[in-house]
Design a protein that fits this description.
This protein has 458 residues and is of the alpha+beta class. It has 11 helices and 12 strands. The chain has one domain.
């Protein structure tokens, strides 16, 4: 099945309108927030299991593959020794894919970890000399991982002895960290690749939204809150046929993606964190439902009326009206339901374009509304990606999947303010943080190397 994108429909809805630089000063308003960093009470106290961001995109240098990338352990200060930032050995870290639209995982990539700790009672150091390779005896603490691919038909171990790229201790300890990153990338049996290790915190934004939505003016806007921090990254790059229904990405090009963490509680594994689209648990779910959302499976989303109402009648839209006078669009917000819960397709709602709903797949099941990041794998990578993604007519960008370069704060603010309904972007509605402080890499895993310089400097 050839999937056709109705570009005229997108343009007519304001989804191909670019933000003019001069428009930023027209309206003294801004809002934004982080993705899923310490977003719920329980997970805020358990950073090793805290999902921060999920990315899914057609690989720019290998367009017959898809890169799935998820981050954990937010706000890693690079100098935070002596234990630094290991993965939790009592947890399972997952990237899940629903390809038929029933909101249940059809493919799961699952990582588990084990420690190799040689420090004992002899030293407090992470390493006792320069580390020039992953098997360097000077590296006293390392983690190994097992990576499995799980489907309803069974489980297959893809990697049984992977080595995690270590935390970037500093220049003296790791004089060429790029070499360690390169050595940690593993080939998969089907020709794909996998990576586990520390990376730059690549989600760029001004996080001071929680000061009453930037204090009601622009005095608190424009600072990249996550600049200089690191995260832990898990990623795979796999053929599109590994993800599509019946291995047919031409007939079934749309997938849904989310990540979870399952923590062992002494008797069984329990889901303690979940992330699909950015910002959802952070600003959609109210405080009393945040922990529940982290434990919820997507297939159950539509049954939780209190959560669905937060999409159809978003609090952020009312706050923008209260603080800045931006009139909140009429409810119910079926445009946001389509963007976040069903994917964009003519038959799903008011956005009359076929873009990224699993219902567009030839062999789709009955669509179950659920929150996940949806990607149409048939749309090729943009030669010059636009940070506003679909807003700027770049259909390979967010909310069609998510690339590292996508400015999801600005995109989602405009969506909440009603850009898909009005056909116009709200001038000035931006957090004024438009790109990451470090350039993204040109090959897998694309996310920059971790910093080894203190965040707070004189």
């Amino acid at each position: 099945m050839e999937l056709r994108i109705n570009r005229r429909a997108l343009v007519g809805l304001g989804l191909a309108v670019a933000v003019a630089a001069s428009s930023l000063a027209v309206l003294r308003t801004d809002s934004g927030t982080a993705s899923s960093h310490r977003e719920a009470p329980k997970i805020a106290g358990d950073p090793l299991n805290d999902n921060t961001d999920v990315y899914a995109f057609v690989s720019p240098d290998k367009a017959d593959t898809v890169t799935l990338l998820a981050n954990w352990i937010p706000f890693q200060e690079p100098n935070g020794g002596p234990n630094f930032y290991p993965f939790d050995t009592g947890s399972r870290y997952n990237i899940k894919i629903d390809n038929d639209g029933d909101a249940k995982p059809d493919v799961t990539y699952q990582w588990t970890f084990r420690d190799e700790d040689k420090r004992g009672n002899t030293t407090f150091l992470y390493n006792n000399g320069p580390v020039t390779s992953l098997d360097d005896p000077n590296l006293l603490f390392r983690q190994r991982y097992t990576l499995k691919r799980i489907t309803p038909g069974g489980s297959k171990t893809l990697i049984s002895d992977g080595i995690v790229a270590p935390s970037n201790v500093g220049r003296a300890s790791m004089p060429d960290y790029g070499t360690l990153r390169a050595q940690s990338i593993r080939n998969l049996p089907d020709g794909g690749k996998a990576f586990a290790g520390q990376s730059d915190e690549a989600f760029f934004l001004d996080l001071r939204v929680f000061d009453l939505v930037y204090g009601g003016d622009l005095s608190e806007v424009g600072q990249d809150t996550t600049k200089g921090y690191n995260v832990n990254t898990l990623s795979v790059q796999v053929p599109q046929s590994d993800l599509a229904i019946k291995g047919d990405p031409k007939g079934n090009p749309v997938i849904g993606v989310w990540s979870t963490t399952d923590k062992f509680n002494g008797s069984k594994y329990v889901q303690v964190s979940r992330l699909g689209n950015p910002l959802i648990n952070e600003v959609v779910a109210p405080a009393g439902l945040k922990d529940a959302f982290n434990a919820l499976a997507p297939e159950n989303d539509a049954d939780v009326a209190a959560l669905v109402k937060r999409v159809t009648d978003p609090e952020l839209a009312r706050l923008l009206e209260a603080f800045y006078g931006i009139k909140a669009p009429a409810t119910p917000r079926n445009d946001l339901v389509e963007i976040f819960l069903t994917g964009i397709a003519k038959q799903n709602g008011p956005i009359k374009a076929d873009l990224n709903s699993q219902i567009l797949n030839k062999d789709a099941a009955k669509l179950r509304p659920s929150e996940m990041l949806r990607l149409n794998m048939s749309i090729p990578p943009a030669k010059d990606p636009n940070r506003l993604g679909v807003l700027a007519g770049d259909l390979q960008g967010f909310p069609n999947g998510r690339r590292l370069t996508d400015d999801v704060v600005d995109i989602e603010l405009q969506a909440v303010a009603g850009a898909a309904q009005s056909g116009k972007l709200v001038p000035g509605l931006t957090d004024k943080v438009d790109k990451n402080d470090k350039p993204f890499l040109q090959s897998f895993p694309y996310i920059p190397l971790p910093s080894n310089v203190a965040v707070n400097q004189r």
